[in-house]
Amino acid sequence: MTVRMRVLIALPSVALLACHKGDAGDSGDKAPAAVVTARTEVVAPQNVMETVGAIGTVVSRAGHVATLSAPASAHVSRVLVTTGQTVSRGQALVELDRAPFEAALGAAQAAYNVAEQAAQRTQRLADEGIVARKDVELATADVARTRAELSTAQRDARLAVLVAPIAGVITRMTATIGASVDPALPLIEIADPSALDALLSVSPSDAGRIEPGDRATLTAGMRATGEPLGSGAVSDIAAIIDSVSRAVAVRVRISSIVRQPRIGETVFGTIVTRTRHNAIVIPSEALVPDSGGFRVFVVDSAGIAHARSVTTGANTGGGVEIVKGLVAGDRIVTYGAYGVSDSAKIQTSASEQPRAAPQTDAGSAVKSEVTKP
After folding, report:
1. What is the pLDDT of residues 271-303, one digit of tens each?
2. Within a 10 A sphere around the Cβ of 360, how many other Cβ atoms?
3. Can you say whether the dihedral through the CA atoms of 360, 361, 362, 363 is positive or negative?
4. Which member of 72, 152, 261, 331 lies 3.0 to 4.6 Å from 58 by CB, making a disulfide possible if both were Cys?
5. Are 24 and 259 a contacting pair, CB within 8 Å?
6. Are the beta carbons of 191 and 169 closer than 8 angstroms?
7. Distance, CA of 28 to chain centre
């Protein structure tokens, strides 16, 4: 056999070997998909509430507050109550020195008696033609004037003891035994504790989102997680901005009480400004930052995760609203999403079955299943 024939016979063998090597190289390039254990959840529609949170104070409701002052300049002789005390209607609160009131009453009574006698005498003289009729008119006017002064003096004498015109709580007391009082200044303030409002401070932009009638829930302190106090509705939004705080006052009329609020107590109000039905809400841990936005891993029927860009909306407190990128029925990776890559295989433990769908506040179901981390 010649050298040329040996070479030709060997060529098919070399070609066949090369084909086998090529096949082996191709199969080696296909790396197996990564297997990741994570928690997943099936997306279901919910009701999303847009809210405004604000800190405020419990205040008395307009029309349910009584302010008392001294009827005239006098001195305080007795103080019978103190700030914060509950009083009943008609209860004595403060006694003023009676001497000046009794003296004024005596003088007014004497002036009235004199005027009335003078009017009677003038009337008799006029009937006899001795004096003109205009003198009778003047005497009659003098009687009316002194009668009004007597009525005022009698009222002042009665008010020498200040009594509660309504049942309530003393919210202000400036009376001090022996001190002089000015009739132009408030001495006592009483508020009805059964008629209270919450005065909340919000930013001008948030105030534009609030309307009268919006529902609000109130909690004690400066957080929404504080002790529940009750709920109510917005009754008024101020038309001006406070010059000091630069905030807008929103008044909430408290209608339902869990725990009796106290006047002056700090409260946190959560006002519901809008409710969107059938919205998509997912747990915040399902979001993975991606080039200035977010992505979510959606798991297909074969258990393969696919990255999908999403657009977020409102933060509901229990999750994040998705306005674009997901639909109801999508199965997403929640806990463990940061360890997932695109096309990864999501492993589900055979011993762990999907839990029964819990009911949300809106009455919609959220199906979820948990895998071992």
Report:
1. 999 888 888 999 989 999 988 899 999 999 989
2. 16
3. positive
4. 261
5. no
6. yes
7. 63
Residue 170: count of CB within 10 angstroms of its CB: 18
Question: DSSP H helical segments within the chain, as ranges?
Answer: 3-29, 99-127, 133-158, 204-207
d(CA 15, CA 8): 11
Sequence letter at residue 280: I
pLDDT tens, residue by residue, 53-92: 999 999 999 889 999 999 988 899 999 999 999 999 999 9
CB 262 within 8 A of CB 292: no
Alpha-carbon distance 149 to 140, whole Å? 15
Q: What is the SS3 assignment for 13?
A: helix
pLDDT digits (tens, 9 = 90+) for 158-181: 888 999 999 999 999 999 999 999
Q: What is the pTM of this model?
A: 0.60
pLDDT digits (tens, 9 = 90+) for 84-129: 999 999 999 999 998 888 899 999 999 999 999 999 999 888 888 8
Decide the pairing of beta strands 248-257 and 196-202: antiparallel
Residue with tokens 């040996």: 6
The token pair that represents 204 in the structure block: 């001008």
For residues 88 and 163, the answer to whether their CB atoms sit within 8 Å is no
The DSSP call for residue 365 is: B
Kindly give the interhelix angle for 133-158 and 99-127, rounded to the nearest 10 degrees.
160
Pick the closest to residue 311 from 326, 330, 297 (CA basis).
Answer: 326
If you compute the radius of gyration of the chain from its CA atoms, what whole number of angstroms results?
42
Distances (CA, A) of 63 to 12, 66, 92, 190, 212: 108, 8, 22, 11, 19
